[in-house]
């Protein structure tokens, strides 16, 4: 096999591993951004955060929100709820950022998956 | 005065000639205690499986992981009739008994008000299932799944037949002691007992009895013959591997490095580090191979495993 082809195959393996690791990260973030309270479940996203913030500005203390199942869920303390979803949002996105930065800098397959190997002998 | 509801995990684990499901359930129970903080774990098994694994791991070691063990009688005719192909990567495959007939008894067998029923090989590496407790929905299970190698797609895992109903995964089921959940499990039993009739009607392939099929049919019937009528678990997806994949190692707690078989190049693998997310591992031999390594992270005493 020519060295060009070998290099292309190595790069293909690298790209495939990178894609898998990136997708795993996304899955983890999605999981961290799911929040259940009072028998309902919410996806923590920008619309939810903005909507709750707006309700607080309009001086609502407690409201009924529709969760991901469209069940009506009573949120008795909106400020606490906002604090919780914001904290979870930042925890998830900060972790995503840190892990994603590590992935971007890894140029070898074993580095993508944090395996301790000799750089000169492995990809 | 408010009454405290009990919540717990239920696992069915019946060994066959090669696969020690009870050992898998024990490993998983240690991870459940660690990650979900749940001590109420019930394992339903049979005397043979129990004796075999106790001899291997020690009674104290098993008792430290599992709070309640229910011994049931095996239906020998079913055991011999229901056989499936198990793979340990594409290189090794074996036809072995697949004993899953009693999963629909989960409702009666569970001693808890709220139960999460999981497969022994659905390894709990996170606390995400804690989102289920106290939920408005009486029963939840997933039809959405994701292979951890994103570009591998198996359409047979999406529907019971090419034009059939959506397939639910009986791998993880949350249920509350309620009229609805009771009716659901009664319907599953009805489908199991009239398997041939429902297979003709819903046209799933093969002769193997699978809980995924009977749970899917029950979901369809109980949902008023509407597709996807039962709500999914409050997790984004069920993550899975294939039995053609292998495991490299478990480098730390809640981490597993997999060899994932390339879809268009059988026998070739890419590596994948899986971290802090629950995972359904189809290659049972592979889990048992790293069982001891995994146990080291969640137990103080080392198991005497094979």
Descriptive report:
The complex is a heterodimer of chains A (123) and B (306). Chain A has one domain (11-112). Helices cover 60% and strands 13% of the residues of chain A. Chain A contains 4 helices and 4 strands; from the N terminus they run αββαββαα. A two-stranded antiparallel sheet of chain A has the order 1-2. A two-stranded antiparallel sheet of chain A has the order 3-4. In chain A, α1 packs antiparallel against α3 (78-105) and α2 (46-57) packs antiparallel against α3. Chain A is elongated and about 70 Å long. The model of chain A has no long low-confidence stretch (mean pLDDT 90). Chain B has 306 residues and is of the alpha/beta class. Chain B has one domain: Alpha-Beta Complex (Spore Coat Polysaccharide Biosynthesis Protein SpsA, Chain A), CATH 3.90.550. Chain B has 10 helices and 15 strands. In chain B, the strands form 5 sheets. In chain B, strands 3-2-1-6-10-8 form a 6-stranded mixed β-sheet. Chain B has a 3-stranded antiparallel β-sheet with strand order 12-13-14. Chain B has a two-stranded antiparallel sheet with strand order 4-5. In chain B, a hairpin with a 5-residue loop joins β12 and β13 (255-261). Mean pLDDT of chain B is 93; it is low at 301-306. The interface between A and B is medium-sized, with 30 and 32 residues.
Question: What descriptive keywords fit this protein?
Answer:
heterodimer, A: 123 residues, alpha+beta, two-stranded antiparallel sheet, 4 helices, 60% helix, elongated, B: 306 residues, alpha/beta, Spore Coat Polysaccharide Biosynthesis Protein SpsA, Chain A, six-stranded mixed sheet, three-stranded antiparallel sheet, 15 strands, globular, disordered C terminus
